[in-house]
C-alpha cells in the first residue's frame, strides 16, 4: 500500500509549492488512517508555479536634471547610466565616444546616432502623451520607429546681423529640436522674445541600445535665463523596454 505525502517549500519567487513523494506503508497502518485524514489527503490541491519574465524587470526611477546649454559655442553631453554630464565639444564638432546618450546646444539636441555619433541611439515622440498628464502612461518603449540624427544647421555664435560664420551644419536630432515654429520641443516667439516648450514626452534609445523616456519641462533657470534645460527622465538599466 502507498501513501502520498506532501511538503511545502518556497521557490525563488517566494510562492508556495506543494512537493509530493510516495512512501510505502503496510496494511495494518493503513487500517488506522481515519476517514477524516483520507478526506484531507485527497482534497489537497497542488500548485505548480514558475517565475514570469516580469519578476526580473528593474523598475525605473524618475529623475530630474537641469542642463546649462546656454553657450552657443558648445555641445554638452549627458549619460543616463551615469546620471551626469560627461563632456563637451565645440558647436561644429561631434563626440566620437559611447559614453554619452543625449547632448544639448541651446534648443538643439543630439542622440548618439547617425551624423552625431557611432552609438545605437535614436528618438521618437510619444505624440499621445504630454509631460503633465501622460508621464505614467508611457510604460513601454516601442520596439521600432526611432529616428537617427541627421545634418542640421545651428547658430555657433550669437551675432546680429548674421555673418557667414554665424551658422554651421552639424549632426543633430530632427525629432527633438527648436526654432521659431510653433510646436517644436522648444519654440521661440519673435513677438514676445520668449521661449516655450511643447510638453511632449519622448522615448530615446541610448548609445548601447537601452531605453529611456524624457520630458523637457522648462527652458529657463530660476533667474529666468534661457538655455537652461530642465529634463525629467526615467532610464531602464536592464536592457528591457519596460519604462514603469
TrEMBL record:
<dbReference type="Pfam" id="PF14064">
    <property type="entry name" value="HmuY"/>
</dbReference>
<protein>
    <recommendedName>
        <fullName>Heme-binding protein HmuY</fullName>
    </recommendedName>
</protein>
<dbReference type="InterPro" id="IPR025921">
    <property type="entry name" value="HmuY"/>
</dbReference>
Amino acid at each position: 500500500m502507498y501513501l502520498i505525502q506532501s511538503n511545502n517549500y518556497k521557490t525563488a519567487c517566494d510562492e508556495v509549492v506543494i512537493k509530493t513523494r510516495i512512501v510505502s506503508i503496510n496494511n495494518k497502518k493503513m487500517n488506522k488512517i481515519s476517514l477524516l485524514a483520507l478526506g484531507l489527503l485527497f482534497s489537497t490541491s497542488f500548485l505548480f508555479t514558475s517565475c514570469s519574465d516580469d519578476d526580473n524587470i528593474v523598475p525605473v526611477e524618475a529623475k530630474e536634471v537641469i542642463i546649462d546649454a546656454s553657450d552657443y559655442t558648445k555641445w554638452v553631453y549627458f549619460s543616463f547610466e551615469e546620471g551626469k554630464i560627461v563632456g563637451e565639444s565645440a558647436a561644429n564638432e561631434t563626440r566620437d565616444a559611447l559614453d554619452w546618450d543625449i547632448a544639448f546646444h541651446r534648443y538643439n539636441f543630439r542622440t548618439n546616432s547617425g551624423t552625431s555619433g557611432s552609438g545605437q541611439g535614436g528618438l521618437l515622440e510619444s505624440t499621445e502623451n504630454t509631460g503633465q498628464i501622460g508621464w505614467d502612461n508611457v510604460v513601454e518603449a516601442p520596439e521600432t520607429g526611432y529616428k537617427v540624427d541627421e545634418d542640421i544647421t545651428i547658430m555657433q555664435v550669437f551675432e546680429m546681423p548674421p555673418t557667414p560664420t554665424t551658422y554651421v551644419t552639424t549632426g543633430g536630432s530632427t525629432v527633438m529640436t527648436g526654432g521659431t515654429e510653433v510646436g517644436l520641443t522648444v519654440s521661440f516667439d519673435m513677438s514676445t522674445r520668449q521661449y516655450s516648450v511643447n510638453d511632449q514626452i519622448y522615448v530615446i534609445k541610448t548609445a548601447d541600445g537601452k531605453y529611456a523616456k524624457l520630458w523637457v519641462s522648462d527652458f529657463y533657470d530660476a533667474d529666468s535665463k534661457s538655455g537652461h534645460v530642465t529634463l525629467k527622465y526615467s532610464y531602464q538599466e536592464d536592457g528591457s523596454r519596460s519604462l514603469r
